[in-house]
Design goal:
mainly alpha; 369 residues
């Protein structure tokens, strides 16, 4: 009963935090209600221990970090310990536990706040671009997937928020802080964002008629660079041999990387690392079709030349491919790797197709007169 009561209190607090002008947007309210229902339902069926294994057992790692107050000896030493603490995500939850809240519900509340903050940033950015935030917009920026991850004690929603803030945040002075937070949560994701920003800036200087070539290069070159970075990272951090296996660009690796665009990462890794059956994973994608649709729409959007956002599109594409290439060096590729970029992809797809429609309408009007 205490868990349910604490969940209700935190849900009410979320409503207070994310209201604008004395009222809360419908999408935010639905996410909060879904969170309250979801965390309660998981607790009811799985209990206080079993809930940490629901969907992804990484939740147990976060629970152990917060429960031990950063004193657990299981977190390793040196760089491993520094990275494993995941301070940006676990520290707010630790502070909530000091107020008497349950560890798991505290972690899940942090996940909820990050998901809600992501929707707020996206909504404000679309409004600044004269775009109405509608039901389709919520779906295209991975709102349902974010809502699902908000009911889990995982760092994914915070990584999504930081990537979105780096792409669309209004306060330039805060971006170094967002980047540091991202590096603390997942170093190679932070490196991928930096790579994409540099890549987008470089190719923003190229002539417009080179756009398709730049897009194709953004799909291929980061695979090569990601492979080298993965090998170099293991060499410098863990002292392993600088091994690029059978070559710099392997057919298997390219398939792994671009499986992310159709949400089929689980078909490209060893079956021992997949926790669900193929039919279950396909069912998840049927329930959350944005997993497949949003990356594909974004990839199509990248082929168009528009007056605005070309630099951000190419940079996001390069970041995603580079990050996927690094992740493909492990056997733990999943939809979670794509989620960090999906709201940015969705927003850029919305803006690109809106620009195309806006330029097409005057032509139609002229031809009809």
């Amino acid at each position: 009963m205490i868990f349910y009561l604490q969940s209700l209190i935190l849900a009410a607090f979320a409503v207070f935090l994310f209201q604008r002008g004395g009222s809360i947007r419908g999408a935010h309210l639905l996410m909060i209600l879904a969170w309250l229902f979801g965390v309660s339902l998981i607790y009811f069926f799985y209990g206080p221990v079993g809930q940490l294994a629901f969907y992804q057992n990484d939740q147990r790692i976060h629970w152990a970090i917060v429960s031990s107050g950063y004193s657990s000896s299981d977190l390793g030493t040196g760089f491993d310990r520094f990275n494993s603490l995941r301070v940006p995500y676990t520290l707010p939850a630790l502070l909530l536990t000091k107020l008497g809240f349950d560890v798991t519900v505290s972690l899940k509340f942090v996940s909820l706040c990050c998901a809600l903050a992501t929707m707020t940033v996206v909504e404000k950015f679309l409004e600044s671009e004269s775009q109405k935030f509608a039901v389709l917009s919520f779906w295209l920026v991975a709102g349902p997937s974010l809502t699902f991850f908000s009911i889990l004690a995982l760092r994914e929603t915070m990584m999504v928020l930081l990537v979105v803030l780096l792409a669309f945040g209004r306060y330039q002075a805060g971006k170094p802080i967002y980047l540091i937070g991202l590096i603390l949560l997942k170093p190679h994701l932070g490196a991928s964002v930096i790579f994409g920003q540099v890549w987008g800036w470089v190719f923003s200087k190229t002539p417009r008629h080179w756009h398709l070539s730049a897009t194709l290069l953004s799909c291929v070159a980061p695979v090569l660079l990601g492979s080298i970075s993965f090998a170099a990272g293991n060499y410098f951090l863990y002292g392993t041999s600088f091994n690029l296996d059978q070559g710099l660009i392997l057919k298997e690796q390219i398939v792994k990387v671009f499986s992310g665009f159709v949400g089929l990462q689980f078909l490209t890794v060893a079956y021992q690392t997949v926790e669900f059956s193929v039919s279950s994973l396909l069912l998840i994608r049927a329930r959350f079709p944005e997993i497949v649709v949003v990356p594909l729409l974004f990839l199509i959007a990248c082929t168009f030349v528009t007056p605005r956002h070309s630099q951000l599109r190419l940079g996001t594409l390069a970041s995603f491919v580079f990050f996927s290439a690094i992740s493909s060096g492990t056997e733990f590729m999943s939809f979670r790797q794509s989620l960090s970029f999906m709201p940015v992809m969705g927003v850029l797809a919305i803006l690109t197709f809106s620009e195309i429609r806006g330029t097409a309408e005057p032509s139609v009007k002229r031809s009809s007169t």
